[in-house]
Amino acid sequence: MTKRSPFKYFKTSPEIIRLAVMLYVRFPLSLRNVEDLLHERGIDVSHDTIRFWWNRLGSVFVSEIRGRRVQQLRAFSRWQWHVDEVFVKINGERHYLWRAVDHEGEVLESVVTKRRNKRSALKMLRKLMRRYGQPEVLVTDRFAS
């Protein structure tokens, strides 16, 4: 079975839609900034249209970017993660923020839990390894859990 095109029912060309959504996804721009950038290139599209495209097609593009990035990072010989935990207060209660960062500084995963134990740490690591594969080096701050 062939995969159907996500651009099937749009009148605008897929290249313009991809450019607008990728500008919004990839760079910290507002919808109106993307509208201005496209206007400078001679493409007249409103920010509401770009928001509609993002709502409909954003998840497709994000999964493509994430997949390509993971493939590149797995091919990289020094695939390294830094895992740390931070104490945070949410509504006056103490919670634990678990975070995994790769060697480029990109946050791979962050999880907030009420408990600080081995089980919650392993749960986060299993989830990471399912999504991104196994790192060559895992750096921790020697947290007790």
Rounded Rg: 20 Å
The averaged pLDDT comes out at: 83
Number of strands: 4
* Multimeric status of the protein: single chain
In angstroms, what separates the terminal alpha carbons? 47 Å
Element-level helix/strand string: HHHEEEHE
Tell me the structural class. Answer: alpha+beta
Q: What's the shape? A: elongated
Number of separate domains: 2
Largest sheet: 4 strands, mixed
**Low-pLDDT segments, ≥5 res:** none
Tell me what you see in this structure.
- One of its GO terms (molecular function) is DNA binding.
- It comes from Lutimaribacter saemankumensis.
- InterPro entries: DDE_dom, IS_Transposase, RNaseH-like_sf, RNaseH_sf, Transpos_IS6.
- Residues 79-144 form the DDE domain.
- The chain is an alpha+beta fold and 145 residues long.
- The protein folds into 2 domains: 14-73; 77-140.
- 46% of the residues lie in helices and 22% in strands.
- It has 4 helices and 4 strands; from the N terminus they run αααβββαβ.
- The chain has a 4-stranded mixed sheet with strand order 3-2-1-4, with helices on one face.
- The longest helix has 29 residues, at 47-75.
- The termini are far apart.
- The mean pLDDT is 83.
Offer a few descriptive terms.
alpha+beta, four-stranded mixed sheet, 2 domains
Describe the protein's topology:
Layout: H1 14-26, H2 31-40, H3 47-75, E1 80-90, E2 93-102, E3 107-113, H4 118-132, E4 137-140
Parallel strand pairs: 1-4
Antiparallel strand pairs: 1-2, 2-3
Helix pairs in contact: 1-3, 2-3
